[in-house]
Design goal:
The structure holds 2 protein chains of 2 kinds. Chain A has 17 helices and 3 strands. Chain A has helices spanning 2-10, 12-37, 43-50, 52-62, 67-91, 96-119, 131-134, 142-161, 163-171, 173-178, 183-224, 228-252, 258-276, 282-309, 321-327, 335-343, 359-373; strands at 319-320, 347-349, 354-357. Chain A is elongated and about 105 Å long. Chain B has a two-stranded antiparallel ribbon with strand order 1-2. Chain B has a two-stranded antiparallel sheet with strand order 3-4. The chains are: A mainly alpha, B mainly alpha.
């Protein structure tokens, strides 16, 4: 463990990869929050695939493999893909999902044509271009990390500057329009940031897995909070944690690729969040359902006892358990619920089969009836 | 058969097999399920490969179909929790499964031939060299036989369940109320998508399966209004993409699968722009015609209101329209030009004077309003 920490700070490759993945995780995760809320979870997938021809064209034009050149090409292609999706869905009856599928696969196919074309050119120095396909986190160098840092910071600054606008855009774009904000322009700005965050990640996790970097941290963060600010911050944190976690894990186990490891870790975070997040989590919800059920059963048996007793001289008149079994609106025998009532001191057994309310039980039953019917039945 | 012809035949069979289930994906707004399934079958292929040791075993198809159905089930499970929307569920499930596949390959298959590039990208050019022989005689390329069988399965399934598929595509609730088990049919359809995707993966690669499943039906959606015509047109567009894609690839010496996807995109783009009624061009023309019609109506009504009155000298001047009707200059002159062409008005110096047919048009427009 200590060795690992030492490595993290001293080992050049590990430090570079971990830092790059963490920065990427923060940027992609924060933007993913907006995408999730705007139900554009799969837009990231489409943009990352659509970026491929841009990479190939940038290489064809400049002959350079400098990350900045390729990222610029990728960004332009990804942005065109996103714009086309928006045009197709707003102007024709093609639905969003079809538009995504078409742009994703057609752009990617075109990129593939260009890549194979480049490969078959004599003296083509294209080795490394297809690392964009699957990502090669291990090949990150300090300059790449610096680039990710600069671009990521710019994205974060813009998110902060346009916080209020992006928030409204995510929750109520029509209202944003009535406030005379340029909705289309803001939409394009957010999409552009989205494209930027995706293309800087391509080199690390690759085209196929980039969509998970966008959506999974946000989906996990959504379960823990109902506030946008906290959600975006948490998403960034989850992204960073899985980035570092993936980098470290894959450095410990031989031939474990970094990108897929990051994705598996972030998927694990999603799973844990879905299960254990307070309020929304499935386990929490199950417990709450169980408690509510228990309370309903207690109230139902209490009211039944009270109703039976109201036919007699005293509200504490005892009745047989079997009567309660058939009378009750709840399913199943009343025995367990009666025991709960006894523990709560609301009812007491008179002999082995009969039960009566305690004075406290009578008061509680009257309260329940008042709440349910506004009086006695 | 020459290899060139065989490749084209395989390409067409793949394109048609993909277009058939694709129609229902597009109609049911589940196009991205094809993307999810075609990626998520990777671990299924890998596990089946480890079990059998070769990539041509029929078990590979079963493994992939199982992984495809697992994807569908997981997406459904996540969606049913109500904690995630369907698109987010898809976006989380398939990268996770895909990662499992990539890691399995990296860990255990380092020295055997199972290349992610091959799974993702495919290479149709080599398909004719992998042949199936039966009792010593060559019966054709493996890809052709496999995809031929899958095509037949697709055709049979869609013909047998045509009515049911139609119903769940257009009115899922009604299908459920009539007792057609839409959920079961949904899984059957997804199973079909999975086996089609896996059959196609070594021919065209998993990502391009998406192009062939979504682009032709979406193009057909812009051209037709019935389910049967949509299926026929999708199949035709798929086949045309396959053949033109082959020749483009041949010409550029590039990836055939990529060129097929590109051509399906080119066809989609052309149809998107030029489709009668629903294309961008005709939508734009219809809109601008309606705007101009509205402009003519406003203009003649305006002139009709002020005709013969003292203020007509002021109100019926060309430049006054821009103030009174708040039209910008270019729209005002377009409306005037269009009205002149329709002989609703004539120009006398700076004044616009209604003709008799212009007066009729103004009166009938007022009645319409």
């Amino acid at each position: 463990m200590i060795d690992l920490l030492v490595d993290l700070f001293s080992d050049y490759t590990l430090r570079t990869v971990a830092l790059g993945s963490a920065l990427l995780g923060i940027t992609a995760g924060s933007l993913g929050g907006f995408a999730l809320l705007r139900q554009q979870s799969l837009l990231g997938d489409a943009i990352s695939h659509a970026a491929l021809p841009g990479i190939a064209i940038a290489f064809l034009i400049t002959g350079s493999k400098a990350p900045l050149v390729l990222i610029l090409g990728a960004g332009i292609a990804g942005w065109i893909g996103a714009a086309l999706i928006s045009v197709v869905t707003t102007r024709t009856r093609i639905k969003y999902d079809s538009a995504l599928g078409i742009m994703l696969s057609v752009f990617f196919g075109f990129g593939l044509v260009l890549l194979t074309y480049i490969q078959r050119q004599p003296n083509a120095n294209q080795a490394g271009l297809d690392s964009f396909l699957f990502g090669q986190a291990a090949a990150l160098v300090e300059q790449d990390v610096l680039l990710i840092f600069v671009i990521g910071s710019a994205v974060m600054v813009l998110i902060t500057l346009f916080w209020k606008e992006f928030k409204l855009l995510s929750f109520d774009p029509d209202f944003l329009g009535t406030l005379a904000y340029p909705v289309r322009l803001l939409d394009y700005l957010l999409t552009t940031l989205f494209v930027v965050a995706i293309v800087i990640g391509l080199q690390t996790v690759g085209v196929v897995l980039m969509s998970a970097m966008i959506i999974a941290p946000a989906a996990a963060a959504r379960q823990w909070t109902d506030r946008l600010g906290r959600m975006i911050a948490l998403a960034g944190l989850f992204g960073a944690v899985s980035g570092v976690g993936g980098a470290v894990t894959s450095s410990l186990i031989p031939s474990l690729p970094t990108g897929p490891t990051i994705v598996l870790i972030v998927s694990g975070i999603v799973l844990v969040s879905l299960l254990f997040a307070p309020n929304r989590g499935l386990v929490f919800r199950r417990i709450r359902d169980w408690q509510a059920g228990k309370r309903l059963r207690v109230d139902a048996v209490l009211v039944d006892l009270y109703t039976l007793a109201s036919q007699h001289s005293s509200a504490e008149y005892p009745h047989s358990e079997r009567v309660l079994d058939v009378m009750s609106t709840i399913s199943g025998p009343a025995h367990r619920t009666l025991k709960v009532l006894k523990d709560l001191d609301l009812a007491k057994p008179i002999d082995s089969t009969k039960w009566s309310l305690t004075p406290e039980g009578v008061r509680r039953a009257e309260r329940v009836l008042k709440r349910q019917f506004g009086g006695t039945p | 058969m020459s290899p060139s012809f065989e490749i084209q035949l395989i390409a067409v069979v793949v394109a048609i097999s993909c277009a058939l289930p694709g129609v229902f994906l597009v109609l049911q707004r589940m196009s991205m399920m094809s993307d999810a399934i075609s990626h998520a079958i990777l671990p299924g292929i890998v596990v089946a490969f480890f079990l059998t040791g070769n990539l041509s075993s029929p078990l590979i198809i079963l493994g992939a179909a199982a992984a495809g159905l697992l994807t569908v089930a997981l997406v459904e499970l996540l969606r049913k929790t109500g904690l995630l929307k369907e698109d987010a569920a898809i976006g989380i499930v398939f990268p996770a499964l895909f990662s499992v596949g990539v890691i399995l390959i990296a860990q255990y298959a380092g020295d055997v031939h199972l290349d992610i590039d091959a799974v993702l990208l495919g290479e149709l050019a080599f398909a004719p060299f992998d042949r199936i022989t039966l009792g010593g005689t060559d019966i054709g390329p493996r890809a052709l036989i496999v995809m031929g069988v899958i095509l037949v399965v697709n055709i049979v399934f869609i013909s047998v369940f045509f009515k049911e598929l139609k119903l769940i595509s257009f009115d899922r609730a009604l299908a459920g109320a009539l007792g057609f088990a839409p959920a079961l049919l949904h899984y059957f359809l997804m199973g079909l998508v999975s086996i089609t995707a896996v059959g196609a993966f070594d021919a065209v690669g998993s990502i391009l399966v998406v192009a062939l499943m979504v682009a032709p039906p979406a193009s057909a959606y812009l051209l037709t209004d019935g389910l049967k015509p949509m299926i026929v047109v999708s199949v035709a567009i798929g086949a045309v993409s396959a053949i033109t894609g082959y020749w483009v690839a041949h010409w550029l010496d590039a990836s055939i699968a990529g060129a097929m996807a590109s051509m399906s995109g080119v066809l989609f783009l052309s149809i998107l722009i030029a489709a009668p009624q629903r294309g961008l061009w005709s939508v734009w023309r219809r809109k601008s015609n309606q705007t101009l019609l509205f402009g003519r109506k406003m203009l003649v009504i305006h002139l009709y209101n002020h005709e013969g009155l003292p203020e007509a000298q002021l109100e019926c001047r060309m430049d006054h329209l821009e103030d009174h009707l708040r039209w910008d200059h270019s729209f005002a002159s377009r409306a005037i030009r269009s009205s002149l062409q329709n002989h609703y008005i004539v120009q006398q110096g700076p004044l616009l004077i209604l003709t008799e047919s212009g007066r009729d048009f103004a009166r009938s427009s007022l009645v319409d309003l």
